[in-house]
Amino acid sequence: MSLSFLSRSLKTKPLFSRQRREGLVLGWGLGLGLGLGSFFTLGFMKNASAADAPVEHMMTSGRLRSMQEMLGGIQGTVVNERQLQHAGIKLHLSILADNGNSVPLGVSVDSPMTPEDHVRDIYLLSQRNPVLVMAHLHLGPWNARAELNTRVRLAGTQKVVALARTNTDRWLVDSADIIVTESACVDASN
Amino acid sequence: MNARLIWPQKIVSGDVVKVRLLIQHPMETGYLQDMTGHLIPRNIIQWVSCVYDAQEVLRVETSSGIAANPFFEFYVRATVTGLMVVKWLDDDGQAGEFRQLMSVQD
Fold first, then answer.
1. What pTM did the predictor assign?
2. Residue B21, domain CATH
3. Which of A11, A55, A178, B32 sits in a 20 to 30 Å window from A120, CA-based?
4. In A, which residues are within 8 Å of B35 by CB distance?
5. Residue B44: phi, psi to the nearest 5?
6. Is residue B34 a part of any domain in this protein?
7. Domain range holding B8?
8. Chain mean position to CA A39
9. Which residues have CB under 8 Å from A52's CB, separation 6+?
10. Residue B17 domain-assigned (yes or no)
11. Domain for residue B7, yes or no?
12. pLDDT tens digit string along B35-74?
């Protein structure tokens, strides 16, 4: 491959020798080719990874569930809003949480916890978290007290519902609203 | 696999004992991204079980709604001196176990 036609038309002596010119062209061509090629390839490779799917597509939080939705969403249980008794159970939750990643929560049920009359299950439901049932606690007379204290994650300001079921199929409910300043499941670095 | 079980030092048979359980576990929700933008894979404890005196005294089916390093405070009626065995299983298939002897007087 000779580029000497360039110098011939100008009728001047070429600045670089033919070998040097060809070497430079080859070098630059390869360099640019590899550079642009790798740029595009790496870019596409990154996008192709399934794990890099945007978080918004996976998070279904943000939408507030209705009470009916929350009750209907408990797997393996059918409970109607009409069955609920708003007595005998207390949900302890502060009014405001600075960080939704760890929010102390307490639930206590007024129950003798005898074999004849005790609480069987306690459900902690979230109105806004991606997952409805935060925890499902199984209890029995051996517990002597139907109480649980734990720490939950809250993805934003919402209502938390505590649902208790006795062995006689009575459903007790209590709910509490909480303001969450910094939501869980959302990174501040985003 | 690390956990802590705390209860009062002096327990008499028949007492209602407050038990506090803390399990060391990141409880990754699968929604957060690391510094390079990749999603940190989900790893949540699926259930926690505590057996005392041949009776399962605690069973919690947990979800991503429980905070990292899960903490549970519950009550148990003390009967006899015996081991309290806490077990759990997470999404990665890792089973955890923690045992502690509950000394009950009388």
1. 0.77
2. 2.60.40.10
3. A178
4. 189
5. -120, 145
6. no
7. 2-29+39-102
8. 31
9. A46, B37, B38, B39
10. yes
11. yes
12. 898 899 999 999 999 999 999 999 999 999 999 999 999 9
